[in-house]
Design goal:
The complex is a heterodimer. Chain A is about 85% helix and about 0% strand. Chain B has one domain.
Chain lengths: ~80, ~260
């Protein structure tokens, strides 16, 4: 196979496998938050910003695989 | 379809320093920031107007957090100044694509002003500022204790019996891993911000360039996601900066009551 074909293939595989983990993690965060809100609806306003921050940090590994696939496609 | 490239284009160069898209964009962001802060500080009143309320609540988000950790007003004020200015700079530059008409200026086919944080050089610089400042603070407060967190000589000196050798070895190894952890902090801070903003721009460019029918109403949900994620990423950057700086400052002092 030529280098161009391997580049395209590897960028796709990298992003595909790299997005499994963060999606599962964010679903877990959201489900725990929903449980806590259901048990005690008055703290919903305090839980929501913390949930967003936790989700943004969990998403970082997905972003790392995006950066690697961008480097594969455009720089090398 | 537009060219997507990771490296920004050089617009002009003065005396060997080359100015590219990202730097010119950050000049505009600085000008906007300076204008807002000068207008706010000229009309400070006891009963605040809307702009003053917004700025005061922004400052108080980070100032109260730092004050709870330090219990010392002056130190919390000094560190809150750095963190709030970082937050405002990242916040405004994430929404740079909402400013109308600025991105239509072209010179020789290159767009002159681009979103600053969509370039890896800008975000690495910001992350280096945060991590470098936290180490500088730790070093200034007590140099030996700060270095002793990473190169653990104390556990080698305290070897009394053969089973202490294992503990000392483990401590030295964990100290080395902490040094690698500092590099990982720099990379993670910069890549998170860069990846989110750059991916938003690429998504919008790809969708608008697909065909003439998808250029006008279809990108609107993607713009909304971009705006939302820009706000969240600015907050996360500032929160992580707060926890890095206050973590190092607290662990370099034996007693919280003598922080100065």
């Amino acid at each position: 196979m030529e280098a161009e074909a391997i580049k395209l293939l590897s960028a796709g595989i990298c992003m595909g496998i790299g997005s499994i983990g963060p999606a599962i993690g964010e679903g877990m965060i959201a489900s725990k938050t929903m449980e806590a809100i259901g048990r005690n609806p008055k703290v919903a306003d305090k839980l929501f910003p913390n949930m967003l921050v936790a989700m943004a940090v969990t998403e970082s590994t997905g972003i790392y695989s995006l950066v690697i696939s961008l480097i594969i496609l455009f720089v090398a | 379809m537009q060219e997507i490239s990771l490296v920004p284009d050089t617009i002009f160069s003065i005396l060997g320093f080359s100015f590219n898209n990202a730097v010119l964009g950050s000049f505009i962001v600085t000008a906007i920031l300076a204008y807002i802060t000068i207008i706010t500080s000229k009309k400070l009143t006891i009963v605040p107007g809307n702009l003053q309320i917004a700025m005061e609540s922004t400052v108080s988000i980070f100032y109260t957090k730092l004050f709870e950790t330090y219990n010392n007003k002056d130190l919390a004020k000094k560190h809150a100044a750095l963190i709030v200015s970082l937050f405002l700079f990242v916040f405004i530059s994430n929404q740079f694509s909402l400013i109308p008409l600025v991105q239509s200026l072209t010179s020789n086919g290159f767009i002159v002003f681009k979103t600053p944080t969509a370039h890896l050089s800008q975000t690495i610089a910001l992350a280096l500022i945060v991590v470098g400042f936290s180490h500088y603070i730790g070093f200034k407060m007590s140099p030996l204790k700060h270095i002793g967190n990473y190169i653990k000589i104390k556990s080698i000196i305290d070897i009394r019996s053969p089973k202490d050798i294992g503990t000392a070895f483990l401590d030295v190894f964990l100290g080395m891993l902490d040094i690698v952890g500092e590099l990982a902090k720099i990379i993670s801070l910069s890549c998170r911000l860069f990846g989110n903003i750059f991916a938003g721009e690429v998504m919008i460019a790809v969708i608008s360039g697909m065909s003439i029918y998808t250029s006008f109403i279809v990108p609107i949900p993607f713009y909304l996601i971009s705006i939302f994620s820009g706000i969240i990423q600015a907050l996360v950057f500032a929160y992580l900066a707060t926890s890095f700086i206050s973590g190092v400052a607290v662990s370099s002092k034996a007693n919280l009551f003598i922080l100065k």
